[in-house]
Amino acid sequence: MNREQWKAVDHFITSKLVPGDAALEAALHDSEAAGLPSINVTPNQGKLLMLLAQMLGAKKILEIGTLGGYSTIWLACGLVEGGKLITLEAAEKHAQVAQKNIARAGLAEKMEVRLGPAIESLPKLAEQRLGPFDLIFIDADKASTADYVDWAIRLSRRGSVIVVDNVVRQGAVADATNKNEDVLGVRRFYDMLAKDTRLSATAIQTVGSKGYDGLAIAVIN
Ligand code: SAH
Ligand code: DHB
Ligand code: MG
Fold first, then answer.
1. Distance from first CA to last CA of the chain, Å, rounded?
2. Are 30 and 97 in contact (CB under 8 A)?
3. pTM of the model
4. Among 10, 39, 63, 94, residue to substitute to test ligand 2 (most atoms within 8 Å of Cβ)
5. What's 59's DSSP letter?
6. At what angle do helices 43-56 and 70-77 cross, to 10 degrees?
7. Is 96 exposed, middle or buried (0-12, 13-18, 19+ CB in 10 A)?
């Protein structure tokens, strides 16, 4: 088993189940042209986010880590009629590229890109009583993941779902000697989930065109 095979299968799944969409493809194209890193979710992962939003009948979605808005557009496509999405991004250039991509997708009315470090934006969302969010997707700096989950819980209701990207990191997460700050952050996140009775969670390893990683999913009790 190797990465070429993972890629081929992702391509196969996507060709069968994830029809091409002009706005999503343009979002990736312009993100790359602007020099953004291609660390967006894959098309089949993006569709999973949309399906989760649909399953929840999501009216309010929060995303932490916008990049060029690729996952953002997928999530917004799963909103119910009249639903709203807020996405948090620290890098001005990323937020600008995302804003354009979102507008081209015809989703500007439903979305707000909030510029600034998420740890500063999250308390403001709470102060402004913008929650509870039905679905929260965490995909920003991995070192802060546990802090974001804590805020996500405060901005939730019973039954809200939290999805966290990149929780396996090529398997490094299971290596207790790893000193990488992202890996330490993700391990701190698992420690938190293990103890926190406010939610119930699991995590799944994934392979695909973006390599070996995984995602966690949690429901608020
Ligand atoms: N969700 C996107 C990918 C996000 S990549 C997708 O799948 O399409 C991670 C993003 O988090 C980057 O754009 C990065 O600038 C942003 N980020 C990093 N640290 C942050 C922070 N402290 N607050 C908010 N955003 C942050
Ligand atoms: C990285 C970040 C991501 O959100 C991702 O999905 C893959 C890689 C990174 O920072 O390397
Ligand atoms: Mg990610």
1. 38
2. yes
3. 0.98
4. 39
5. S
6. 30
7. middle
Q: Is residue 165 lining ligand 2, measured as CB closer than 6 Å?
A: yes
Q: Is the CB of 39 under 6 A from ligand 2?
A: yes
Could you say which residues of the chain have pLDDT below 70?
none
3-state helix, strand, coil in the chain (%, to 5): 50, 20, 30
Are 144 and 119 in contact by the 8 Å Cβ rule? The answer is: yes
The residue whose C-alpha atom lies closest to atom 10 belonging to ligand 1 is 65
Based on the number of CB atoms within 10 Å of its own CB, is 12 exposed (0-12), middle (13-18) or buried (19 or more)?
exposed
Model pLDDT for residues 38-61, shown as the tens digit of each residue = 999 999 999 999 999 999 999 999
Q: Which two tokens stand for residue 220?
A: 């608020």
